[in-house]
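Q: Could you fold this chain for me?
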Amino acid sequence: MPKRVLTGLIVSDKGDKTVVVNVERKVKHPLYGKIIRRTKKYHAHDEGNEFKQGETVRIEETAPISKLKTWKVVDRVNTHATPERVDVDA
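A: Sure. Below is the predicted structure, expressed as structure tokens.
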């Protein structure tokens, strides 16, 4: 069975080797049909304490590490990447 991978925003990095990641998803309301946002917080393992609050990261499901941690941080998602400049010869 493949491991689930989610993308979210780090809302806390105060714990040692732990970050709290807020994952947002959009679902359709069952009765009214409006698209609404649902959020959930996941405690994820950060071995080197290298990720900071405010960064967008990908987390992957793992075997339980502690009471609350069953996820680990895979990598940083570069949301502030600027596209490469393309020169168009007209």
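A (continued): The mean pLDDT is 92.
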